[in-house]
What we know:
Blueprint: E1 7-11, H1 17-27, E2 32-36, H2 40-46, H3 61-68, E3 73-76, H4 79-84, E4 88-91, H5 111-123, E5 127-132, H6 140-152, E6 164-169, H7 179-184, E7 189-192, H8 196-206, E8 215-218, H9 220-251, H10 255-263, H11 284-297, H12 301-328, E9 337-341, H13 356-366, E10 370-374, H14 380-388, E11 400-402, E12 413-418, H15 430-436, E13 442-445, H16 452-458, E14 461-464
Helix pairs in contact: 1-3, 5-6, 9-11, 9-12, 11-12, 12-13
Amino acid sequence: MNEKIKKICCIGAGYVGGPTMAIMAEKCKTIQFTVVDIDELRIKNWNEENLDLLPVYEPGLDKIVLRNRGVNLFFSTNIEKAICGADIIFIAVNTPIKTEGLGAGEASDLTWIEACARDIGKYAKNHTIVVEKSTIPVKTAQIVSQILNIESLQKNNQAASNKTFSVLSNPEFLAEGTAISDLLNPDRVIIGGEDQNAIKTLVEIYKKWVPQNKIITTNIWSSELSKLVANAFLAQRISSINSISAICEATGANVQDVSRAIGSDSRIGDKFLQSGPGFGGSCFKKDILNLIYLSKSYGLIDVAEYWEQVLKINYWQQNRIYELVVKKLFGNLKGKKISFLGFSFKSNTNDTRESPAINIARKLISEGAILNIHDPKVNESQINKALNSLKINNQSFKKWHFHKDVYETFNESSAIIILTEWNEFKDIKWVEVIKKMIQPAWIFDTRSLINGEQASNIGFKYWGVGNDN
Length: 469
Ligand code: UDX
Ligand code: ADP
């Protein structure tokens, strides 16, 4: 371990910053880690004694936070103090897609990255290694470097003369729900940059728990691009299998059997072939949009159109499911109750960003349905934010109810839609459930979670994605 590294700061205490620093603190006991955020409530919750209140739900995270918090892991809102004492600063802030202006709908909004870079430029002392962790567009390092230098050279900045920075790219590949094992046993760690000493310093930190042959060093642009491409390829597989799910339904094939058959070809591999309601999460859509924007900005229009199709199929799958529900319920949803099982974009996370459940819920509500929603980890205020901020026909109205008890969602319901593959949904006593529902009682299983044959035997009408026999 490089003995010079005593303090590391991470700006952004979200789904990336929190778990990543918790694991680093666990593995590098001689370094002090401070995770800072402008969001006071978030930091308060990271410091909560009651671990159920941690802002990020991630299996295994609570124990790691408990073991290291107050020892060499700290959560704080004092950004200036954390920056000025740090040898290495990770940037893990949000980078959503721009909603207005140049590149709106495709390019990432770098407002938060810029604010961070300005803070670092202002408060850092001596030599600081700045590491990009957030998902960012290619060439962001260049922008970060420029801002760091501009800020540090402000006339009234006394310590400017001996301030220097090395910017590295070290994209995060953790998937929510499996973040802890992904961080502990990564397939690879990518570090991109120009300053070989800075790269070496970061490699030494990772070597504490990652075998050296899994640490790939490269130039900064390849590193930034690799993150976008990895996510684009994964998303592409999901859109591919979702497109096949419709062919399976039309022909009587079974998409799970097809997935198994093609996945056993070692050249294809069996991961990311699970058909569902479409991909969600904060990364896939954003990264593909970034790739599209990048392609267009280099005049690669056919390339941009190729990747656009991956997103198009993702929307199409969500719409297809919504339309199917309407058709099966006699083309009319007015006043009908629909039970929504799951709201997070996948299981084992409380994250709802880009969850297919949001789009499907919104469309069903616009048809007049009343949704009874249950999710084991998503809370009511998150659903409120996701649905009530969306105006339908220019009106805000509440046509949904949140139920902590899953069995309460089924009262007088006409249909159940399984949107998230939570394990606990497998234990639901369907024999009891059907008694509470209005006939014909439908189950739309967008995750192939339950046994369709058993559901039909109980008396349900069952539709499973890619398996409509
Ligand atoms: C993803 C990448 O996996 C991770 O490497 C990157 O750092 C961040 O983006 P994440 O968004 O957390 O991680 O979840 P992931 O497991 O990749 O799932 C994304 C979406 O695809 C989810 O909505 C999931 O339900 C869906 N999915 C995944 C499928 O529909 N089918 C599959 O076979 C796999
Ligand atoms: P991710 O999934 O990439 O971790 P999140 O939205 O979960 O994204 O977390 C990003 C965090 O970064 C948020 O908690 C946000 O408040 C924080 N943040 C954004 N800009 C700044 C900033 N300039 N300084 C400190 N924290 C910031």
